[in-house]
Amino acid sequence: MVGLPAVLAVGAMATMMAQGVLAASFAVSGTSFQVASSKLTSDGLASYVETDRSLDGKGHPVSLLGLDQATLNDICQAAEVKTPLGTVTFKLTAGGDAGKVTASNLIIDAEDLAGDARFGTVELGRDASTLNETPGIRGEKGKFGLQAGNIEVADVKSHAWSATGGNFRLKGLKLGVSLGGDKCF
């Protein structure tokens, strides 16, 4: 009886992570990667400053970007990885002629983001603990937050430490690993 509330809480958290409402926390690899798209749209955006940690304990300051229902015309993700053979480029692409890429509750831990943006509504400086535009995306009380009602960003270019999402649909997925290969930008 004493442990029942804890078991229920853990079960509820596991259910929310499986549905993509709550992000699972994990140690980042220590290698940031590029993310690019010709166009990104979403019903909502919530963002606040966070710190990702790699297994060695090193912190990486990021802007946690939570996107409710995201649609991308195309996507390119590339990371450079040092190996005994030399620097290898790990590259993933999808979308384009194959169809749009979609994800629910897409969360990107980005160190930067560039593009041409349009926000339907925007609230800058909102307390991160009160964000309500994207389910499950709230920061700590007193932290700087930003949220927007509906967004469109063209020519997206970002460096990120992690990305998670629920119901990711990658039409025309291509994955390549090559020595000294091309990156996204």
Structure characteristics:
globular; mainly beta; 185 residues; 1 helix
What's this model, at a glance?
By secondary structure, the protein is mostly beta strands.
The span between the termini is 56 Å
- Structural Rg: 17 Å
Q: Which geometry do the CA atoms define?
A: globular
Largest sheet: 10 strands, antiparallel
Question: Beta fraction of the residues?
Answer: over 45%
Order of helices and strands: HEEEEEEEEEE
Q: Estimate percent helicity.
A: under 10%
What is the arithmetic mean of pLDDT? 87
> How large is the count of helical segments?
1
Number of strands: 10
Task: Give the total of domains.
Answer: 1
The assigned structural class equals mainly beta
- As residue ranges, the low-confidence spans are 1-24
Keywords: Signal
Protein name: Cholesterol esterase
Pfam family, one: DUF6230
InterPro entries: DUF6230
Write the layout of secondary structure elements.
Blueprint: H1 4-18, E1 33-42, E2 45-53, E3 59-72, E4 74-83, E5 86-95, E6 101-119, E7 122-127, E8 144-148, E9 151-169, E10 174-179
Antiparallel strand pairs: 1-3, 1-4, 1-9, 2-3, 2-8, 3-6, 4-5, 5-10, 6-9, 7-8
Describe this structure in words.
Residues 1-23 form the signal peptide. It is a single chain. Helix content is 8%, strand content 58%. Strand 2 and strand 3 form a beta hairpin. It contains 1 helix and 10 strands. The chain is mainly beta and 185 residues long. It is globular and about 50 Å long. It has one helix at 4-18, and strands spanning 33-42, 45-53, 59-72, 74-83, 86-95, 101-119, 122-127, 144-148, 151-169, 174-179. It has one domain (27-179).
